[in-house]
Amino acid sequence: MNLLNGNEVSKKIKLEIAERVKLLKAQGKKTPHLAAILVGADGASMTYVAAKEKDCQEVGFDSTVLRFDASITEEQLLEEVIKINNNPEIDGLIVQLPLPKHINEKKVTETISYKKDVDGFHPMNVGLMFKGLRTFLPATPFGIIKLLEHYEIETSGKHCVVIGRSDIVGKPMFALMLHKNCTVTVVHSKTKDVSAFTKQADIVIAALGIPGFLKAEMVKEGAVVIDVGITRVDDATAKSGYRLKGDVDFDSVAPKSSWITPVPGGVGPMTRVGLLLNTLEAMELYK
């Protein structure tokens, strides 16, 4: 069993991004600028946005965070998005999800200019991705692809099973692994026998949000296992009062795996790297 270490790989890629930013500045070009909108005071969202700010600082990006109370109206939020769309100094925009229930997430996502949609959620970018054309890739699937490439995991001709069909991970993961010449199967909550598929898989990507869902008996010997899930599980013995658990039962699955991601420290850091790469791409592609 070998670890797919997202912490190490993300550090390496961030150093490469920082060098590219230095070169841009030396050439007299603008500094990449990422903006984030945070609505409300969700703890996980606040932590994630703070991490993105730190990432930007590390690689030399400019960053802006606009924070709004949860009572902001949908109309007011859309106005703020449009302001950033029209701001030539800002290259990329993310609106941190989830949003309060009175705000239509789909409407907000589709209001972001596809040229600044560094989350890769806009229908224009989704279409370009499925066609295999140059665009912004959803950050988590993008990060997973970079992780597989770094460790030179063979994908061509392999059978990949994706557990989950979300717009954020499952569906784009299907497309990207198809582009990597995998035979791809997507299983989900309505699949009658998930293990019948996962036991055949050379690569399993678990992204359904159920802690410990993938057990040892569900994977074959030597499989590559990517754990996208990260859930706070109450644990009175932990200082924080909780522990982070993935969708994979790591202790039982790891001994059967050839490669596996830890949680935390696997996919999470690579998601943030995907966002940085997309922001750099936005500046280079549309300026």
Please describe what this structure looks like.
The model has no long low-confidence stretch (mean pLDDT 95). The N and C termini lie far apart (44 Å). This protein has a six-stranded parallel beta sheet. The chain is an alpha/beta fold and 287 residues long. It folds into two domains: 28-113, Leucine Dehydrogenase, chain A, domain 1 (Rossmann fold), CATH 3.40.50.10860; 139-267, Rossmann fold. The chain contains ten helices and eleven strands. α1 (6-26) runs parallel beside α10 (267-286). The chain has helices at residues 6-26, 43-59, 74-85, 105-111, 123-131, 139-150, 170-179, 194-198, 250-253, 267-286, and strands at 2-3, 33-39, 62-68, 92-95, 159-163, 183-187, 203-206, 223-227, 231-234, 242-245, 257-260.
Total of domains: 2
**What portion of the residues fall into strands of 2 or more residues?**
15-25%
What pattern of helices and strands is seen along the backbone? EHEHEHEHHHEHEHEEEEHEH
What spatial order of strands do you see in the largest sheet?
A: 1-11-8-7-5-6
**Shape summary:** globular
CATH superfamily of the largest domain: NAD(P)-binding Rossmann-like Domain
Radius of gyration: 19 Å
The CATH topology assignment of the largest domain is Rossmann fold
The CATH architecture assignment of the largest domain turns out to be 3-Layer(aba) Sandwich
* Low-confidence runs of at least 5 consecutive residues: none
- CATH class of the largest domain, named Alpha Beta
State the total count of DSSP E strands. Answer: 11
Number of helices: 10
How far apart, in Å, are the first and last alpha carbons? 44 Å
- Summed over residues and divided by their number, the pLDDT gives a mean of 95
User: Assembly state here?
Assistant: single chain
User: How many strands, which pairing sense, and closed or not: the largest β-sheet?
Assistant: 6 strands, parallel
SS-derived structural category: alpha/beta
